[in-house]
Amino acid sequence: MTIENIESVLKESRLFPPPAEFSAEAHIGSMEAYKEMHRRSLEEPEAFWREVSDELEWFEDWHTLVDDSEKPFFKWFLGGRLNACHNAVDRHAVGAMANKAAIVWEGEPGDTRVLTYRDLHREVQRFANTLKSLGIQKGDTVAIYLPMIPELAVAVLACARIGAVHSVIFAGFSADSIRDRVLDAKSKMVITGDGGWRRGKVLDLKSIVDEGVEGCDCIEHVLVVRRDEFGEAFPCEMKDGRDVWYHEAAAEVDAFCPCVSLDSEDLLFLLYTSGSTGKPKGIMHTVGGYSLYTYLTAKYVFDLKPEDVYWCTADVGWITGHSYILYGPLQNGATVVMYEGAPNAPDPSRFWKIVEKHRVSVFYTAPTAIRAFMKWGDEWLEDADLGSLRLLGSVGEPINPEAWMWYHEKIGGGRCPIVDTWWQTETGGILITPLPGVTPTKPGSATLPFFGVDAAILNAAGEEVSAGLLAIRRPWPSILRGVWGDPERYQKTYWCNWDGEFYFPGDGARRDDDGYIWVVGRVDDVVNVSGHRIGTAELESVFVEHPSVAESAVIGVPHEVKGQGLVAFVLLRGKDAEGSDELRAELNALVEKRIGKFARPERILFSADLPKTRSGKIMRRLLRDIATGQALGNVTTLADPSVIDSLKAKYTD
Ligand code: PRX
Fold this sequence. Notes:
binds adenosine-5'-monophosphate-propyl ester, 8-stranded mixed β-sheet, GMP Synthetase, Chain A, domain 3
């Protein structure tokens, strides 16, 4: 948890009520209405969820809302049968909606493609039949490693259509990370591409996949999508018998592929995320609860209307992209903008040009992007007409009040409500958020719980306090169903506190006098770098792989743009061993190889020793104090207090 954050939000007292004209048109337009719906969602959950679940199409109705007999392994909407792809695509692909744009895609070089709901329906069926023709069946796991091109959406929805479990791997991950995820999920196929554009360069995804799947016996095929900018592929090698060009295989299959009827509790996807141990965990989400919850949150939090053009700038490789580029908005029949490239390609006006060009009305991004734009300067906004915007959202990390105000004034023109949405990979959808037509907002606060969410702030003893650990009292429909292959880890990570009565997200928070929740950051060993979760233990285990490294401790420190950055303290083998720039480069290369470029620390510091307690535990708190220049906390429990002085001297070098 960053001290700066707590301090800045403690001082924050500005209040921004929703504009009256916004509330008048909003799905929910008053605090009374929100409170009544929230009360009902908790006190009469059967009736509440029955009503809203009727807004989706079910092949068979559910009979039991929730089964908690094997707590914390919850089941929702028992007896229900549905298909997430049907609700996201098929039901809009008939009648008046069929010719509405579903995905408005823009490539980094400026090429565009528009898929109507009918187009998307056609493409998804063809993709699904291609998967089937290559042996993929219901229950099989398919890894997807694609850039932000329309086929990423199509591939995900095609898996959902036939009941295959998608496991999307963000295209910034390394070959080693692909291998870990493929082996853990026992994926039968990887879907990748011949390339995609990122900051003017073509990503060479295929050779990363080749390296990643080498020796993975579970892999039967690598399906390669051609990005198709000029009707020609970027050069890549194809391995006989294993690798298949998507455009070739797709030409051979039938155009018609029905949706499979799935049980509410059938697995929809796995998405790997970092935790406080070295090994990423495969978060499990199932069809019924995830579909309904993402549908409902997208509808109310983004106040989606038929005429909206909605743009979430996340990558589908992360949960935000799953829930709020694909499933949530598409189930609402929205028009979704999808952009391939970097925010500053070719220059930092790119996002705003996209907003202007496509008349984006609802815009959802991360504080780290907002801070980057602030740094790049307001001149990049000057030529863009942002008048189409009516609602702004923020996600991924606490938003500092300065960034909130800049977003409000410069992007929102002072007229657009901002929804600061708190949630996680594990929660599947947004749990704490303002509703745009309802909630007076305060810069930096995620405000109040969504329907069905019973949030508390507790101390270790389980007492309600005004500042402490965020806790969720009961399950909600899209709660993770477990950690793939490791039920014990699920139980231990999320239900270890408070006699297993509350879900523990790993965040610290406080509640103000108005009952608003301010989430201040992680309290475990997970660091949020530019909205990406990185487990410090994961990085530490990468460093100790190097033959010169004896031990390491990685901590998160405040970072102007990224929110948090990583600092690694590395202890070398051999008493007199000295660090060098070459070694630093080797360690960085190792991080890139094992995890990905985005996980490289800001600083690697070689040290002769690490501050430890007498029982040998590294005192990270002290390392953080050193790195942030704070007065040092209690050092009396240290085995060797002199370590601190030498570290301090090194850090300030
Ligand atoms: O610490 C919280 C932070 O991001 C974590 C979840 O990360 P991830 O699973 O990668 O999902 C990110 C996108 C949903 C949380 O435990 N976080 C996310 N949103 C907010 C936030 N912290 C404060 N305010 C938010 N709005």
